[in-house]
Specification:
Shape: globular
GO molecular function: L-lactate dehydrogenase (NAD+) activity; L-malate dehydrogenase (NAD+) activity
Protein name: Malate dehydrogenase, NAD-dependent
Number of strands: 14
Strand order of the largest sheet: 3-2-1-4-5-6
InterPro entries: L-lactate/malate_DH, Lactate/malate_DH_C, Lactate/malate_DH_N, Lactate_DH/Glyco_Ohase_4_C, NAD(P)-bd_dom_sf
Family: Belongs to the LDH/MDH superfamily.
Structural class: alpha/beta
Keywords: NAD, Oxidoreductase
CATH superfamily of one domain: NAD(P)-binding Rossmann-like Domain
Distance between the termini: 39 Å
Order of helices and strands: EHEHEEHEHEHEEEEEHHHEEEH
CATH architecture of one domain: 3-Layer(aba) Sandwich
Oligomer: single chain
CATH class of one domain: Alpha Beta
Strand content: 15-25%
Number of helices: 9
Length: 301
């Protein structure tokens, strides 16, 4: 398998590092507007692979020709969110970058699967889908795994328990309106509501929703290790056709992307798994989709 990453900044380089260490693919291409940055990080990653006795070919360039016939292309290019800036404030500038990237992917890797990481995530999935003219199953947004992981972390921290003992799912848009599915929140076999008060659970949800903003506040730029781990999980699922469920931003028949429970395979989106939502959660999910439609209309008017 060959995986290309557009954008050699913090997120892109972290993706390449994890994909290398986990031996997910035989080739990695880093493409960036700054050719020297892409080449330098590719060289550094190649040294890392050699130290770890991993036979992986890693190249960097500013030339999209490098991604010719690659299997997966990850779009991380774009402006990072600044302190106090919403994901929505990034929209128009990043839409232009993602649109150009997707058009180049369609030219050089027309059979690839696109994984979008650039924010605002769900809107950028829509932009990539339209610019590439790929089938909807071929364009996938990485965010639900990140949001769900953050929620699991908050649960484990609250209870001081092993994170592998915690389960949680976040659906909808990758922003502060994301839906933390309460029935999915468990510790072992116990529902979280059997262990914690509603006030504690609401605190966990609030901290999860604001985790990204907290990182920006502390560091001055967006997260990169967490998003890279999400990309790794998607790439592994595509390669191995593991039939595991993940949360990704994908399109249903409405062609409006949002975070849904899915299964992936070597063709991209294999199946959307309908979650068991309460009426309130269903309404919130629909509201999330309606808000994205308004957002799309604002960008494309």
């Amino acid at each position: 398998m060959k995986i290309a990453i557009i954008g050699a900044g913090n997120v892109g380089a972290s993706c390449a590092s994890l994909l290398t260490c986990k031996s997910v693919c035989e080739q990695i291409a880093l493409i960036d507007i700054n050719a020297n940055l892409a080449k330098a990080k590719a060289l550094d990653l190649s040294h890392m692979a050699a130290i770890l006795d991993l036979d992986i070919k890693i190249n960097g360039s500013d030339d999209y020709e490098l991604l010719r016939d690659f299997d997966i292309v990850v779009i991380t290019a774009g402006f990072a969110r600044k302190d106090g800036q919403s994901r929505e404030d990034l929209a128009k500038a990043n839409a232009s970058i993602v649109s150009q990237s997707a058009a180049q992917i369609a030219k050089f890797a027309p059979n690839s699967i696109i994984i979008v990481v650039t924010n605002p995530l769900d809107l950028m999935v829509y932009v990539a889908l339209n610019a590439s003219k790929f089938k909807p199953n071929k364009v996938i947004g990485m965010a639900g795994e990140l949001d769900s992981g953050r929620l699991k972390f908050q649960i484990s921290s609250q209870l001081n328990t092993n994170v592998t003992n915690c389960n949680a799912i976040c659906l909808g848009m990758h922003n502060d309106s994301m839906i933390c599915q309460k029935s999915s929140m468990k510790v072992g076999e116990k529902a979280l509501s059997d262990v914690l008060s509603d006030e504690d659970i609401q605190g966990i949800i609030h901290r999860s929703r604001t985790s990204g903003a907290k990182i920006v506040e502390l560091m001055g730029t967006s997260a990169f290790y967490g998003p890279a781990a999400g990309v790794l999980k998607l790439c592994q699922s595509i390669k191995n056709e593991s039939n595991n469920t993940l949360v990704c931003s994908v399109c249903d028949d409405s062609l409006i992307p949002t975070g849904r429970v899915v299964k992936l395979d070597k063709n991209g989106l294999k199946e959307i798994v309908e979650p068991n939502l309460t009426n309130e959660e269903e309404a919130k999910l629909q509201n999330s989709i309606d808000n994205l439609i308004l957002f799309i209309n604002t960008i494309y008017k």
